[in-house]
Amino acid sequence: MLLKPKTSSLIVLIAGACLLLAGHTVTATAQERIAVGIAVPLTGVYAPLGRQIIEGAQFAADSINQAGGIDGADIAIETIDDACDPARASGIANQLVGRNVIAVIGHLCDRPSIESAPIYAENEIIQISPASQNPAFTDNRPREDGGTYRLAARNTQQGDTITEFVLGMEEPKIAVIHDGSVYGKRLADLLTRELDEAGRPAVLAESFVTGEESYRRLAARLVDSGADTVFIGGFRTDAAIIIRDVDRLNTDMTFIGGDGLVHADFPSGVLENNAARRELSDIFVSFPPDPRRFPWARDTVQALLDAGQSANGLTLRGHAALTIIADALKTDPDGGYEGLIAALNSGTFDTVLGPIRFNEQGDANLIDYLMHEWQGATIVPVVPQDTKPSDLSAEPADEAPPPGE
């Protein structure tokens, strides 16, 4: 395999290679390795998601290597802990530059992805984030022609899904509240604006202070407003307490939220000391369809299970990202960074997430958000669509993907 080196080495040679002058070709042997970096949190609250991404990518790399690698070269995973900390992003990116990676799967959280992107582009390293939802990540990518990509739906898609669902309801009297976070406020503001434009303004719109042990005063205002539906822009802990406090006053209220309300401990939070409710119902959330149920993921999911591993959470996102990088390399193994960009911009990649293409902004054509209803301890799609797999029932992940900070 012949590779044309760019400003950063595409291949780390272990032994038996003949290196000529820079700008010429590198003659590689079967003992070389292709380094792919993974920058995700391995400490902190999002560490479980980081490990899932690594496990999925490593499983894909092992399968590719067992089948002969990329033109005889094995893929080697280089992991690094970014702790979802934007202050560390530049340093993490430079460390991966020093490890001679050709591509990075990362980062998980929005700000580290955005902060690190210029460094990867400057050093001709492909970046694919498996989870960053902030539109700015690809809207402001360093190179207009490519190099920076995402395998996550934009958070604006989540807002559109919620708004469409609410506007399709039978004239609800809706209250819109949020916790003041970028995530919660963005969803609430979009919904409020669309309701106003539709001539169906919210009966109450306000923010609340996060982290309170009780929201009984807020609950009283919600009930007094005459609302029969409440949108909560925020996260699971606060939302569970709010629902619990409203239940004490009105058991006929419907609640709607984003993916911040999807977590394995959310049901227990709602039901704790809540004599008015025995199970979760009439609580609707936007959430991506469960990729474990996709027909194109079944073989990989089973292989993971057979190996004693799980396909939960972001495992399949990591698998898909590594698959895309490998397939892009196979398309033009001699093309270097520019060849990879050309392949990623024009190719369709068969992955566990389905056939993936990237648009001109670097966003994947992923199935975006669906509305789900909490039923007992799980979430179930409200209306499975024809273009989606028929069985999308999803167990909540141990940690929901972190919404935009």
- Give the neighbour order of strands across the main sheet: 10-9-11-12-13-16-17
Figure out the total of helices: 12
Instruction: Give the amount of beta strand, in percent.
Output: 15-25%
Question: From the helix content, strand content and strand pairing, which structural class follows?
Answer: alpha/beta
* Global outline: elongated
Radius of gyration of CA atoms, rounded to a whole number: 23 Å
Sketch the major β-sheet.
7 strands, mixed
Q: Please provide the ordered H/E string of secondary-structure elements.
A: EEEEHEHEHEHEHEHEHEHEHEHHHEEEE
Mean pLDDT across residues: 87
Approximately how much helix is present in the residues? 25-40%
Distance between the termini: 43 Å
Brief account:
This protein is of the alpha/beta class.
Describe the protein's architecture and organization:
The protein is α/β, with parallel strands linked by helices and 405 residues long. Helix content is 35%, strand content 18%. The protein has twelve helices and 17 strands. The strands form four sheets. Strands 10-9-11-12-13-16-17 form a seven-stranded mixed sheet. Strands 5-4-6-7-8 form a five-stranded parallel sheet, sandwiched between helices. A three-stranded antiparallel sheet has the order 1-3-2, with no helix packed on it.
Layout of helices and strands:
Elements: E1 2-3, E2 18-19, E3 26-27, E4 33-40, H1 47-66, E5 74-81, H2 89-98, E6 103-106, H3 110-122, E7 126-129, H4 136-139, E8 148-150, H5 155-167, E9 174-178, H6 182-197, E10 204-207, H7 216-224, E11 229-233, H8 236-247, E12 254-257, H9 266-271, E13 283-287, H10 298-306, H11 315-331, H12 336-346, E14 349-351, E15 354-356, E16 370-375, E17 378-381
Parallel strand pairs: 4-5, 4-6, 6-7, 7-8, 9-10, 9-11, 11-12, 12-13
Antiparallel strand pairs: 1-3, 2-3, 13-16, 14-15, 16-17
